[in-house]
Amino acid sequence: MTEQPTGVAETLEPLVSRLLAPNPSPFTNTGTQVHLVGATDLAVIDPGPDTPEHIDALIAAIAGRPVAAIVITHTHRDHSPGSRPLKAATGAPIIGCAPLAFDDSGPRADASFDHDYAPDRVLAEGESVAGQGWTLTALATPGHTSNHLCFALPETKALFTGDHVMGWSTSIVSPPDGDMADYMRSLDKLMQRDDRIYYPAHGDPVENPQRLVRGMMGHRKQREGQIVRLLREETRAIPGMVERMYVGIDPRLFPAAERSVLAHLIDLRNRGLVVEQGDAWSIVKD
Fold first, then answer.
1. Listed GO molecular functions (predicted)?
2. For 10-217, CATH number?
């Protein structure tokens, strides 16, 4: 990860710049990356948290240029709340994913949903918003959340991946809204594309996206294999599986790991491979 100061716009290519929000954590890495697309008029993708310091920095980066759209990939609280003060300051419409008022039982406060998110326009698969010299086309990528969208910039073959594909870690898939089967299908969907570069909401740009996505799919399949092997040995509860599977990780990440293991188990259960027995899980015998 390259060193990047918060609140300072950095040009990534002529049509794209980014600004880092001041919300670092074990789950957001250095913070949420806000992307500005365009030269004369702008789209602001995932404006981030609603804090005065951050919104002031974002408005300074906009530098008086008209904002054509505030574009949202999904409604976790480290992504969409800044849309409201930014709309008030610029008059721009909020466009992107559908609202999702959901009580997430996941492991982190910033992963709970933004219940006040109110888009002016919801984009379906293949629908676009455009400005001078740029187009952003929605790509439905459920899994991390059920309402997650990525946005393709066909003018430069870039893809803004939100939290679906990040530049520093794999995404948390936290049931009941997060769905591992959907997540894997969405990764496979990206494998069928030929994007040149990914711009994620956390971490650096991904310059070899196909290789990363292939590795992420392999990693998830490896985790699934670990779970199956552990359950072939004996019936187990999720915390015990996490201790065996995630050796050496920051203990603060254990709750997130438990959510991902649960997502794998639900997928395996739906495929008839495991069964739930109270707080424990066991393999379906051949």
1. hydrolase activity
2. 3.60.15.10
